[in-house]
Design brief:
The complex is a heterodimer.
Chain A lengths: L2 H18 L3 E2 L5 E3 H8 L1 H6 L2 E4 L3 E5 L4 H11 L6 E10 L11 E10 L4 H15 L5 E7 H9 L5 H9 L4 H10 L3 H4 L11 H4 L10 H16 L5 H11 L2 E3 H11 L7 H16 L7 E4 L13 E7 L9 E5 L1 H8 L6 E6 L1 H13 L1
Parallel strand pairs in A: 1-5, 7-9
Antiparallel strand pairs in A: 2-4, 3-4, 5-6, 6-12, 7-10, 8-9, 10-11, 11-12
Helix pairs in contact in A: 1-16, 4-15, 5-14, 13-14
Chain B lengths: L1 E6 L2 H12 L4 E4 L8 E4 L4 E6 L4 H7 L4 E5 H7 L7 E6 L5 E8 L8 H15 L3 E5 L2 H11 L4 E5 L15 E6 L3 H5 L2 E12 L1 E6 L6 H15 L2
Parallel strand pairs in B: 1-4, 1-5, 8-9, 8-10
Antiparallel strand pairs in B: 2-3, 5-12, 6-12, 7-10, 7-11
Classes of the chains: A alpha+beta, B alpha/beta.
Chain lengths: 366, 230
């Protein structure tokens, strides 16, 4: 049987598995309005998606994922309290600027849960549903929880301005590290260059005002920088704690212990760790072997920036270069952003049937 | 014959011609100044192609020409991972220009990428859209901003007169080529302290994907010995 046929059979099997459990099958269009995606992801998505134009609808994209169109439809068509489960199967399109060996179009089969009632149970359901689609493969499983990191940042003894900057860059680890270090450094925080700042005089010497950004916006930023520089730097102790948190990587039960060990010094983690523990219990009840599952505190930070809670990925054990065979996570913030004020907790995941076939081929050849 | 692509107009063409001239390879345009055709004297087996400087990178990448002269900025922009199919044979010592990120001089609170990132955050909150950076160097600008961790911006395409986009309020900042900085100054813009994206120089490239017959390999080697000396 040729590979294409095998991939289709896998895709069918998984979609049926998802829909048999009561999920509604949806089929978003391939051409998606670019503005929502661009507003959400910025230039990163332009580098990764095919952009084209429509004479009437403006800039369009070949759908780079299903999550955004599904959230859009859900938020537009249903009341925000409505619970729903969706399943889908279709191609997504990804430009590959760096690595021409990676596929630029491939099938995704996915499962999404919109449910306000029991988010922990929904996390476990989404994970188990994706896992059930992969049951006959031997895979390495990695998980994370962006919510724990967010709680740690929110708990820092520092200004709201600095916390906001850090939260904004959670998905850019390098930048996060740079600004965290800057916030612990008295010299870097200094606003000496604005010492002689006088709102009126300072502008007189400068070139004329051009562009949309106004004088008052500039003054506002300078004032807030000066205000912020008066607060003491984040302590080295807190910096050390954040780093030890970020370095946690272990099997789930051991990771839980390590997280709990941080609690006395980081009380802000309390509720996030409780959630994590409850999720482990829910997974355990669903017969997931927790001792085989990795937890990495930094996992999911370099993926597209909308996962803001539980995140997971399944990787081939025998074929290390293969991209993850399945990925997923919680994206509450995405429904809020697209819902423009309305929101509903949501979690889901996708499977790549092409990689299942590839990985199976590798296992049998082995 | 091996194909040599050089820029078809302007100072880049003139300087390329004189660089080769002083090394015994005489590139000539046909007498009609309007016709994009030329020939080579002083060496056998080389065919001269006058091309748009911005098309030379693609021609080299596709292997349709064997050698080409163009700015390194254009190669880096048009051919991601250019080292796969192109080899930089010689930096020619002219055509210097920097691709830089500039903002209004009037932004007295913004001198670095760090400032730009934080200004972009406030700008998006206030105006409801991402801070716009006008450029024709989308790939280089995006990679640069990404590695600096700048968020809340968007690139808008500008194929010319990019320095004017801020005044026209179609962009808040620009990423564009400058050699002296005079045009930026005249348009009330300043370069960020750490805003150097790429230092460009006219460069002779060899295509690794072009087919070289035995005869062409010999011609190429004579050509390189002549122009590079020892």
């Amino acid at each position: 049987m040729n590979e294409q046929k095998q991939i289709e059979i896998e895709a069918d099997r998984i979609l049926r598995l998802f829909s048999n459990s009561g999920a509604k099958i949806v089929q978003p269009t391939i051409l998606q309005q670019a503005d929502t995606l661009l507003d959400l992801y910025g230039e990163d998505i332009r580098a990764r998606a095919y952009v084209t134009s429509d004479p009437f609808n403006g800039e369009m994209m070949l759908r780079p994922d299903f999550t955004v169109p599904i959230v859009k439809t859900h938020m537009n068509d249903l009341s925000e309290n409505e619970t729903a489960r969706y399943a889908y199967c279709g191609k997504v399109f990804r430009r590959q600027e760096k690595n021409s060996d990676r596929a630029s179009e491939y099938l995704q089969v996915g499962y999404e849960i919109f449910d306000r009632k029991d988010v922990i149970q929904s996390d476990a359901d989404a994970f188990c549903k994706i896992k059930s689609a992969l049951s006959d493969l031997s895979l390495k499983v990695a998980t994370g929880d962006i919510g724990i990191l967010m709680a740690a940042v929110s708990g820092l003894k520092t200004t709201d301005r600095r916390k906001k900057s850090l939260l904004r860059h959670i998905w850019r680890p390098k930048r996060f590290k740079t600004i965290l270090e800057k916030f612990t450094d008295e010299v870097a925080l200094s606003t000496k260059r604005f010492d002689n700042f006088d709102a009126e005089k300072s502008f007189e010497n400068q070139a004329k005002k051009i562009g949309l950004r106004s004088k008052s916006e500039i003054i506002e930023r300078i004032e807030s920088l000066r205000q912020d520089s008066k607060a003491s730097p984040i302590s080295k102790t807190e910096l050390g704690l954040i780093n030890s948190l970020l370095n946690i990587g272990d099997k789930c039960p051991q990771a839980l212990t390590k997280l709990k060990n941080l609690l006395p010094d980081m009380p802000a983690l309390q509720s996030a760790i409780e959630k994590f523990e409850k999720r482990l219990t829910a997974l355990d009840h669903a017969n997931v072997d927790l001792s085989s599952i990795d937890f990495e505190a930094s996992y999911g930070r370099t993926s597209m920036e909308y996962y803001d809670g539980f995140v997971f990925g399944f990787y081939s054990e025998s074929y290390a270069d293969l991209p993850p065979i399945a990925t997923g996570g919680r994206y509450d913030a995405l429904t809020k952003h697209i819902g423009k004020g309305r929101e509903i907790p949501a979690v889901g995941g996708v499977v790549r049937p092409d990689l299942i076939v590839k990985s199976k081929g590798f296992e049998t050849n082995d | 014959m091996i194909k040599l692509g050089v820029p078809s107009k302007g100072r880049l063409m003139e300087e390329t011609f004189s660089w080769f001239d002083s090394r015994g390879v005489h590139l000539k345009r046909t007498d009609s100044k309007r016709e994009y055709a030329g020939y080579v004297k002083g060496i056998q087996g080389i065919e001269l192609l006058l091309l748009s400087a911005s098309e030379i990178p693609t021609e080299l990448n596709e292997g349709r020409i064997h050698f080409g002269v163009t700015g390194s900025d254009l190669v880096c922009e048009k051919v991601p991972n250019w080292g796969q199919n192109l080899e930089a044979i010689k930096y020619l010592g002219f055509g210097f220009a920097d691709l830089v990120l500039s903002v209004p001089k009037f932004w007295i609170d913004v001198d670095t990428l760090d400032d730009l990132d934080s200004a972009a955050e406030a700008f998006r909150e206030k105006h409801g859209f991402r801070l716009r950076i006008a450029t024709k160097y989308h790939y280089l600008a995006r990679e640069f901003l990404k590695s600096a961790g700048v968020a809340d911006y968007q690139l808008v395409d500008s194929q010319g007169a990019t320095e004017g986009t801020v005044k026209n309020e179609t962009a808040e900042a620009i990423a564009d080529i400058t050699s002296t900085g005079e045009t930026l100054k005249a348009n009330h813009l300043k370069i960020l302290d750490d805003g150097l994206i790429h230092s460009s120089e006219a460069t002779l490239f060899k295509s690794k994907s072009a087919f070289f017959s035995e005869e062409q390999t010999a011609a190429a080697s004579t050509f390189l010995t002549l122009i590079l000396g020892d």
